[in-house]
Here is the input.
Amino acid sequence: MPDKSDKEKIIRSICSSHCGGTCEMKIHVKENRIVRIEPGDGENKPRLCARGHAYRQRVYAPDRLLYPLKRSGIRGSGEFSRISWDEALETVAGQMKRIKTAYGNAAILHFCSMCDPHTLHHVGAFHRLLCQFGGYTAPWGFISHEGASFSAGVTYGLRRKFTQTEHSPEEYLKSRLIIMWGWNPVTTEQGTNVPLYLTQAKEAGAEIICVDPRYTDSAATFADRWIPIRPGTDAAALIAMAYVILKENLQDKDFIEAYTVGLDQFKDYVFGIADGVAKTPEWAEAISAVPAAAIADLARAYARNKPAALVTSIGPGRTAYGEQYHRAAAALEAITGNWQPRNWQPTPTKVLKYNPQFSSPPNQVEIGPPLRRNALPYRGTSVNSSARVNISLFADAILKGKDGGYPNDYKMVWLSNTNYLNQLGEVNKTIKAFQKLDFILVTEQFMTATAKFADIVLPVCTFLERNDIMAPRGGGVYGLLNKAIEPLGESKSQLEICKALALKLGLTDYGDQSDEEWVKHILTQISEEIPLPDFDSLKKDGIYRVKAAQPEDEKSPPPAFRTPSGRIEIDSEIIAKINDPLIPTVPTYLETWESLNDPLAEKYPLQLITPHFKRRAHSQFDNLPWLRELQTQSISLNTIDAEARGIRQGDLVRVFNDRGEVRIPARVTERIMPGVVALPQGAWYNPDEKGIDYGGCANVLTKNVISPGGAFTPHTALVEIEKGVE
Ligand SMILES: Nc1nc2c(c(=O)[nH]1)N[C@H]1C(S)=C(S)[C@@H](COP(=O)(O)OP(=O)(O)OC[C@H]3O[C@@H](n4cnc5c(=O)[nH]c(N)nc54)[C@H](O)[C@@H]3O)O[C@H]1N2
Ligand SMILES: Nc1nc2c(c(=O)[nH]1)N[C@H]1C(S)=C(S)[C@@H](COP(=O)(O)OP(=O)(O)OC[C@H]3O[C@@H](n4cnc5c(=O)[nH]c(N)nc54)[C@H](O)[C@@H]3O)O[C@H]1N2
Ligand SMILES: [Mo]
Here is the structure.
């Protein structure tokens, strides 16, 4: 139990804010109230970002949802009345049973986003409940990195890795060249202290080059050179780099011979044997706006200055044919021999292994339907099931149902740990879809754009108000998410909500273990394999670092790849089986929809990208005054584009396309290339009565379609900007 004496106590935990940072936190608690949050004092002086420091303001925000709510106005109006937990859960259970009887379990869609990285209060809790209830329609595809995962899967046989992004700090330190390709780690947190390691790498003499349409804070801080590139054209530039390397015989023949398959087929494409078009730097310049000489220089440097780290972030993969960018980067890494086994510390997947999720009955909805056409063999049959709906396509699936080729008609959606409406493509389409549903349940901490459409909102507590265990990806660390205070108001943890709903649904197997009991159970199980401290020590220390594995012998061979050939597949056998002309077997540049060559560009001549924002984790934290002070939500556009439209710094502008309109201030800057505009994703959708958004929500403008490999595509969209009317 949290201490209720008036002595100040320090609780150690790990920040879990859906940014991937997972930074250590020291939470000062007095009389069951958080009075201060500081960074931890573990190895490497881990820093805590502004969001972590401000978490106290998030916990005590005046707009936090503390009671169950029932909709009292029309959907989206945000009008609700407070009800009891009993009434809320009765209503939910009643609707679930009704929909199950009338339409079958598949009519229930559910999504729990990544959100706080945690184990017990996450997708597993909901999945187990819904499977015990007879099943539901689950999503497939990672919002963040399905393009990268698809590529890693077919190229290396990996299940879900980002690969190119997951370079270790040691790799940066020994790299002579680091290419930050669409990678902006100063802003988009991707593990504690990455900027510190980059500083050390720079001090150790690494050259750093940034390839990004924006002159990002990371470019400003670290890069020796900034190479602006047209969004969605990365594959062309990377393939032209391969052209230079192969033409000038700079490839690593030993590595290619030992570990890859399919270079000959790739060469046919690169040299234009297959299609008569040589993929020269000049060819790529015309597409990407990167000067041919810059492409050639970069190619030579990457092949010669080894070891070199090509850090290809997942942002450029969230584009129309995003998987091709990742495939091209993987091929380049392999042919230069810059690929290396990533020296991972003992994997923390054991937490997942003992997650109660794995005691779920199978999802009945997925028993029977065949695999998806682009199913990937190294993924579980469940994720590959054609009964699932791609995470980006809920709105489309709800609107079109069986008639539109989806496996079912959908009547209910339960959204948890996600601000789906705000965060996925084409807000106005999602609104239409939500209006069509019989019942919407949202488990939330705040009255988000999504929650406003709910029929029932269940208030969920923050990670500081519950116990959990987590193991950040690749980190060699186990962390206890220590409950620092009791849940505020009547808010409950996800596990408690599911337990209570299970009773209303008449389910007897859900169990009544508390989160503390589950954490202890998981710890005991893991300790049979890896010695870990007991619960009480972890409670005190918050985290435990698994002893680092011995650095691997640099000459040691890469492990066997789990591809059909057991090698890095530059020409992919798995893709050949998928047999889709839009997913070629070798990495290929495919022109995106809504490119500047699209006829639509006459009407909407600017390419919109929607990067992640420093003061938010997606839509989270957008409502905190401490953080709002730091940055203004605005649309960045180049001085040339601004002048052509008579727009000056700070002017209110209209940003629009056929999908919607946003009105926000302009940020006129040389830090973005001409023809490209950037609207940071995650701002809260705030429409007027005509549906014009004054919040600056990027997804009002993005398109609700996926790449052929299944990627979310929010960095591919055309818009126009005009000076606002006021
Ligand atoms: N502060 C903060 N940190 C975060 C998050 C957050 O919301 N806020 N979110 C976390 C999560 S869940 C994720 S998935 C990651 C996301 O990490 P990323 O996907 O890497 O983030 P983005 O900001 O979308 O994109 C990174 C860079 O790519 C550039 N870019 C966009 N399109 C293109 C393109 O077509 N080509 C090239 N070369 N560059 C392009 C953008 O200008 C941007 O600078 O960040 C994590 N960290
Ligand atoms: N245009 C555009 N859109 C994007 C992206 C982009 O680059 N461009 N990036 C995409 C990416 S990579 C991602 S991962 C998605 C993220 O999409 P989401 O995961 O939907 O985004 P969040 O804003 O993190 O929403 C989490 C919501 O869950 C609520 N919540 C409920 N329970 C909990 C809890 O226990 N803890 C916490 N912290 N919150 C809880 C929070 O209050 C918040 O409203 O956005 C995607 N959207
Ligand atoms: Mo993400």
About this structure: Residues 343-348, 551-555 have pLDDT under 50 and may be disordered.
